[in-house]
Design a protein that fits this description.
Strand content: 35-45%
Number of strands: 19
Number of helices: 6
Largest sheet: 7 strands, mixed
Helix content: 10-25%
Radius of gyration: 21 Å
Order of helices and strands: HEEHHEEHEEHEEEEEHEEEEEEEE
Strand order of the largest sheet: 3-4-2-1-7-10-9
């Protein structure tokens, strides 16, 4: 069974690589902060047929794949869908976000454009991915990725689309990897303007090592984190120099001159500059 699941994972990823399909992720958070996450992939018959052709699959092999998928109609279009639901503890739910408290929820980076999937799967699955040249897939390979979260408390403002009952927000998941996406529950506290840095100091030089951690502190909501390294600027960064969450923890391990600029919901900004060599 485990082997079959690995193969199905590869097949689904091949669908992404060959047809540019998308996905939806729905998270429903309970009052005790536990949650249930459901991820769904949807493919039209045409996309499945194109996949079979490109992968040199027989009609029987294509039928075998279709039998593992659910057929349903979405917005008047018939799709073959693959869904998986996972229950998360209160701790796992909190860890899913870069920040989640009584003031706001901030969507954490799910995967960045420079990180390959080889670090996220076991050796058996990785070998299968390598056979098809799919071991370097990233979030940028998704044609679309919608993230919907239902909170137990009402949302005042959000960067995504808020539902009529004010408890559900839908974001474009691809933007979550480039810009801070958030939902606000308490706007007054979100507007707190204080921003402080800890761990690294302005105009100081540090040795390249495993932990050069910059912690961004502030009671208010951080709405923008930018890191400039040389001529490149990374928004809500999650590059190789960052082993944190890209939001309030950044770990600089690569050599270079850095400028970190943080802005918050109150419109205030603060900058720190330092060197790693």
């Amino acid at each position: 069974m485990k082997r079959k699941l690995h193969v199905l994972v590869v097949l689904v990823m091949m669908l992404f690589a060959l047809t540019g399909c998308g996905a939806t992720v729905n998270v429903k958070i309970n009052t005790d902060k536990t949650s249930e996450m459901t991820a769904k992939l949807a493919f039209t018959q045409t996309e499945l047929s194109n996949f079979a052709k490109n992968a040199n699959l027989s009609a029987f092999e294509l039928m075998a794949i279709q039998m593992q998928l659910k057929q349903e109609t979405i917005d008047g279009v018939t799709y073959y869908t693959f869904s998986q639901t996972e229950k998360m503890s209160a701790k796992d739910t909190k860890d899913y976000f870069a920040r989640y408290d009584s003031v706001a929820a901030v969507i954490a980076n799910q995967q960045n454009a420079s990180t390959d999937i080889s670090k996220e799967v076991d050796a058996e699955t990785l070998n299968l991915l390598k056979q098809y040249g799919l071991d370097k897939l990233t979030i940028n390979d998704f044609a679309f990725l919608d993230l919907t979260v239902t909170f137990p408390q009402p949302v005042v403002k959000a960067t995504g689309t808020i539902s009529a009952d004010k408890k559900t927000v839908t974001w474009d998941g691809k933007k979550c990897d480039k810009e801070v996406q958030y939902a606000i529950f308490n706007e007054a506290k979100a507007k707190s303007s204080k921003i402080t840095f800890a761990g690294l100091k302005n105009k100081k030089t540090y040795k390249a090592k495993k932990n050069n951690v910059l912690t961004i502190k502030g009671d208010g909501l951080i709405t923008s984190v930018k890191v400039k390294k040389g001529s490149k600027t990374y928004k809500f960064p999650q590059k190789s120099f960052n082993k944190g969450n890209g939001y309030n923890k950044l770990n600089f391990t690569e050599k270079g001159k850095y400028t970190v600029t943080v802005k918050n919901y109150a419109g205030k900004s603060k900058t720190i500059k330092f060197t790693v060599k």
